[in-house]
Amino acid sequence: MTKLPNCPKCNSEYTYEDGNLIICPECAYEWSLDTAEEDSDELVVKDAHGNTLVDGDMIVVIKDLKIKGSSSVVKQGTKVKNIRLVEGDHNIDCRIDGIGAMKLKSEFVKKG
């Protein structure tokens, strides 16, 4: 019998396997062994279609976005090159031609 890992959320040792998932009965957190290795201190950002984004990717805005505190708008279809991923609610840091430095939410972009 193999030793199952402790829960990554509450560190409980009472985890059990259910199909391809590992479940913690104390905090009800579920994860798979495949993603357990990937979750280690690595920022994972996904676009609106579920594609994983990495630093330096090119993205396309999928919705008109109003710029807070301005009358400008980032139009749908705007291409943004050389993005940088950051922690937080707005997890994409970039520079848009004609507008300047911006922070975008990944749910409003797709990988280009």
Automatic annotation (TrEMBL):
Residue ranges of domain Protein YjdM C-terminal in the record: 45-111
Keyword Hydrolase: yes
One Gene Ontology molecular-function label: hydrolase activity
Superkingdom of the source species: Bacteria
Residue ranges of every copy of the Protein YjdM N-terminal domain listed in the record: 4-32
Keywords in alphabetical order: Hydrolase
Family per record: Belongs to the YjdM family.
PANTHER family: PROTEIN YJDM (PTHR30305:SF3), PROTEIN YJDM-RELATED (PTHR30305)
Protein name, as recorded: Protein YjdM
Organism: Cetobacterium ceti
